[in-house]
Specification:
about 130 residues, three-stranded antiparallel β-sheet
């Protein structure tokens, strides 16, 4: 498995005995919102962090990152197998969702930064915040 890329809103998660990556993307959030009937990002986020079974099951399918797109269905089925996933996975899931959502927001903020590259580099060297001034 490739390591998670936070610049793409990815985070690693372990459910049961399976390590995989999720990525928070706007299209993934839209599919998930439609699948579970969530109307706002706050509602979606609350249901994911609350480890609501239907929300988690749909999120695994909507947010999973696979090295090969053909693996998504089989990997999702293995993750969600009753012999694998349990309430004991709630903390790992919550941490991964928080990390992926934070990375998604940070990446979006950076893309909206209209400073010149030299200013961004200068600010980084001086330890100034990454977000636009």
């Amino acid at each position: 498995m490739l390591p998670a890329n936070p610049l793409r809103g990815e985070a690693e998660v372990r459910i049961g005995s399976i390590d995989f990556r999720i990525a928070v993307t706007f299209s993934g959030l839209a599919r998930l919102s439609d699948a579970i009937g969530a109307r706002t990002l706050d509602e979606l986020y609350g249901r994911l962090l609350g480890f609501e079974p239907k929300a988690v099951a749909c999120a695994v399918r909507c947010l999973i990152v696979a090295d090969d797109e053909d693996q998504i269905s089989a990997l999702s089925a293995r993750i969600l197998d009753d012999g694998n996933i349990s309430a004991a996975d709630q903390l790992a899931w919550r941490e991964a969702v928080e990390k992926a959502l934070s990375a998604h927001i940070a990446a979006g903020t950076i893309r909206r930064d209209e400073r010149a590259a030299t200013q961004i580099a200068g600010d980084a060297v001086l330890g100034k915040p990454v977000s636009p001034s």
